[in-house]
Amino acid sequence: MRRVYDAAKSVMGYEAVIIATDDERIREHAEAYATVIMTNPEHQSGTDRCCEAFVKSGLHCDVVVNLQGDEPFIKPSQVKDLLRLFESHSTQIATLKKELFDIGEIDNPNVVKVVTDIHQKALYFSRSRIPFQREASAAQKYFKHIGMYAYRADTLMEITALATSSLENTEKLEQLRWLENGYSISVAETHWQSPSVDTPEDLEHAKLFLSQN
């Protein structure tokens, strides 16, 4: 978590960097170097937790960035890519994608795919291969969704008040709720992907990743 916090702090233009958690162990650890806000343990998504922390903070800002503490190797450049999308006043929500080359990942339901329009607005997110390649000879790129988000502050308040949607319940992807309710998601391409750390096995993978990068 400290690595994520430091990456966020290194990006110019932040009014504040806050750690939001429902775990007392994380609070005790992180209070030595950061502002920590305790949140409801019943939240179903990181977006809901982010919104509660934003409200409790009393901050007044235009854009809120949501980074996950289990992504210790994110780069400050990725955060800048998100923020750059808000140079357009039409941007409501921003996220990232990375091109996929491994057929195993393309067909892996645990790897979320995204397709965008010509303006780099998300058309759909899915655990399935999208688009379906009907002809083997057709050249098609596939993109993985990288789950970092930024939101206009007013949009964040609105989307967390929405009821769950049918597409969201089907794919178990919260961003489909936003699309289904007419919100737009701007997508920037990144060329960096790093492992998340959620299990002891992930930690060993992360140590190997760190030694090689």
Describe the structure.
The chain is α/β, with parallel strands linked by helices. The chain has a single domain, classed as Spore Coat Polysaccharide Biosynthesis Protein SpsA, Chain A (Alpha-Beta Complex), CATH 3.90.550.10. Helix content is 34%, strand content 21%. The chain starts with a helix and ends with a helix. The mean pLDDT is 90.
> How would you write the strand order of the largest sheet?
3-7-4-8
Which fold name fills CATH's third level, the topology?
Spore Coat Polysaccharide Biosynthesis Protein SpsA, Chain A
Largest sheet properties: 4 strands, mixed
Radius of gyration: 17 Å
Secondary-structure arrangement, i.e. CATH architecture: Alpha-Beta Complex
Q: Judging from the principal axes of the Cα atoms, what is the shape?
A: globular
What number is the mean pLDDT?
A: 90
CATH evolutionary superfamily? Spore Coat Polysaccharide Biosynthesis Protein SpsA, Chain A
Low-confidence stretches: none
Kindly report how far apart the N and C termini lie: 19 Å
Overall tally of domains: 1
Topology:
Layout: H1 2-9, E1 18-21, H2 24-30, E2 35-38, H3 46-57, E3 63-66, H4 76-84, E4 93-100, H5 103-106, E5 113-116, E6 122-126, E7 142-152, H6 153-159, H7 166-171, H8 175-180, E8 185-189, H9 200-212
Parallel strand pairs: 1-2, 4-8
Antiparallel strand pairs: 3-7, 4-7, 5-6
The gist of it:
This protein is α/β, with parallel strands linked by helices and about 210 residues long. Helix content is about 35%, strand content about 20%. It has helices at about 1-10, 25-30, 45-55, 75-85, 105, 155-160, 165-170, 175-180, 200-210, and strands at about 20, 35-40, 65, 95-100, 115, 120-125, 140-150, 185-190.
